[in-house]
Automatic annotation (TrEMBL):
The gene is gmhA. This is Phosphoheptose isomerase. It comes from Brevifollis gellanilyticus. Belongs to the SIS family. GmhA subfamily. GO terms for cellular component: cytoplasm. Pathway: Carbohydrate biosynthesis; D-glycero-D-manno-heptose 7-phosphate biosynthesis; D-glycero-alpha-D-manno-heptose 7-phosphate and D-glycero-beta-D-manno-heptose 7-phosphate from sedoheptulose 7-phosphate: step 1/1.
Length: 191
């Protein structure tokens, strides 16, 4: 087997092993799906944030809700706090990166909004601070983490904790579950 083929097989095996252990997450994911639908039906929004690949996931999922996932339906309120470079740079430069999401949550989150903080390590300080701010703002708090997500889960109403310490597998399982959540939400808003 080539070196690449060996790597590919290793990644697929690790990915499948992690996916297989997600059965335990069905109840929490169902609760998150209900929370998204309840908030959106009440005219509230879903707010996402995370670092690196999780910033991309935050943007990806916000886009699915605002635009569409698979079917045409009305626009749904969602925003990723990872996209405005003026806010990101001004806040990091003037106050520090640790509160870059908390500040935006303070500015934008309303009681009843759902706030989704994504961290594969579960230890990123800016994600933890953002979740704390969401609690203080009266939001429904959701964490997406890898297996060491206790600090985020302690702040969350619903904690989706992928049973892997490997960033890539956690990211892949976050996006997979995010897509199912979007599918469920779209079904609830079918015309
Ligand atoms: O995508 C990857 C690795 O797959 C990286 O960009 C990764 O997201 C970054 O290192 C993040 O800073 C990790 O943060 P976190 O998920 O531990 O909160
Ligand atoms: Zn990545």
């Amino acid at each position: 087997m080539s070196e690449f083929a060996t790597m590919l097989k290793g990644h697929i095996d690790g990915h499948l092993d992690t996916i297989k252990r997600l059965d335990d997450c069905g109840a929490v994911l169902s609760a998150i799906a209900d929370a998204w639908v309840t908030a959106l039906k009440a005219g509230k929004k879903v707010i996402f944030f995370g670092n690196g690949g999780s910033a991309a996931d935050a943007q990806h999922l916000a886009a699915e809700l605002v635009v569409r996932y698979r079917i045409n339906r009305r626009a749904l309120g969602a925003i990723a706090l990872t996209t405005d470079t003026s806010i990101l740079t001004a806040h990091s430069n003037d106050y520090g990166f640790e509160t870059v999401f908390a500040r935006q949550v303070e500015a934008l989150a309303q009681p009843g909004d759902v706030v989704v903080g994504i961290s594969t390590s579960g230890t990123s300080k800016n994600v933890i601070a953002g979740l704390k701010a969401a609690r203080e703002s009266g939001c429904v708090v959701v964490s997406f983490t890898g297996q060491n997500g206790a600090d985020c889960a302690a702040l969350a109403d619903h904690a989706y904790c992928v049973p892997s310490p490997i960033t890539a597998y956690a990211q892949e399982c976050h996006l997979m579950a995010g897509h199912v959540l979007c599918e469920f939400v779209e079904a609830a808003f079918r015309d």
